[in-house]
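Practice problem: predict the structure.
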Amino acid sequence: MQLPVSLIKNELSEFEIRFKEAVKSQTPLLDRIMRYIVKRKGKQLRPMFVLLCARLCGEVNESTYRAASLVEVLHTATLVHDDVVDDSQERRGFFSVYALWKNKVSVLIGDYLLAKGLLLSLDHNDHKILHILSDAVRKMSEGELLQIEKARSLNLKEDIYFEIIQNKTASLLASACAAGAWSTSNDEKTAEKMRIFGEKTGMAFQIKDDLFDYASENVGKPTGNDIKEKKLTLPLIYTLNNTDKSTRRQIINIVKNNNNDKAKVKWVIEKVEAAGGIRYAIEKMNEYKKEALSVLYEFPESPIRKGLEDLVLYVTDRRY
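Answer:
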C-alpha cells in the first residue's frame, strides 16, 4: 500500500518549508539540533492527515499549513521527551537527540518545541486549532502516566489498555484530522466527525504497532521489543487474561525478570500466538479500521477521500 503523496505533493512541499521556518532558532546550538531533527524526519503521516482532511472539507489555506506545522512540532516534541523517558539511543534508525545531547538538552529541546508550537498558533489567532491540539497533548501525558502506573503490576485489563492508547497515540492523530477539517470548514460538526475518524485510525495504528512484536504472516518478523521493555500490548493482555494460571505466572515472571533472555522471550511469543492473542489483536485492529472508514464514507466520493482511505489502509497494512 502506497502513501497518497501525489494528491498533496505541492501542499507537502509548502508544508516542509513552513515547518523548517517554524522550528528555526537564532541560538546556534538550538538551530543545529533543529536542523538535525528536520533532516531525519519520518513519513510525516500526521501532516498528511491534516492536509487531506483539510482538502476533504475545503481549500487548503494559511491556517491549514500552520495546523500541519503545529501537529508536527508537537509530535516531534513528544518524541524527544519520550526518548528521555525510555532511555532510547535511536530514533528512525539514527542517533536520538537524547543519545547525542543527553537529558538536560533533550528536555529543553522538547520544551522549546512546545513553546514554538504555542506561539505559531497564538501569533496568528488560531485559537480553535490550538485548543484542539492542546487537548491532545494533555491526553498524551495522561496516557503515558497511566501506562507507567499500570505497567508496574503487569495486571492490565483491556478497557484500561484501550484508554491508554486512545490517549497516548490516537489523540494526536484525532486532533490532526480535526484541526485540518476545521481550518477549511470552520464547522464544529465536520471537525468532530473527522476527529472521530482520526481517533479510530489512531487506535488501529497502535494495535498494528503492538503486532510487530509477534510472528504472523500479516505482520512480518517478530521483534519482541515490547516484551523486553515490559510493555503490555493487546496480544499479551489477551493471553494473560485467557490462559491457565501456571502459564500466566510464567509469562509475568519472564516479562518482569528475564525479558532479555531471547529463548524465554521467544517462548512468550509462542504462547501468545497459541492462545490466539495475535488473531484477536488483528480482529480488533480491523474493527477500528472499519469504523474509521465508515465515518470517511459519509463524505462524497472523491480522489481526496480515496487518498484518506489509502492512508487508513497503509496504517493497518504497513510492514514497519
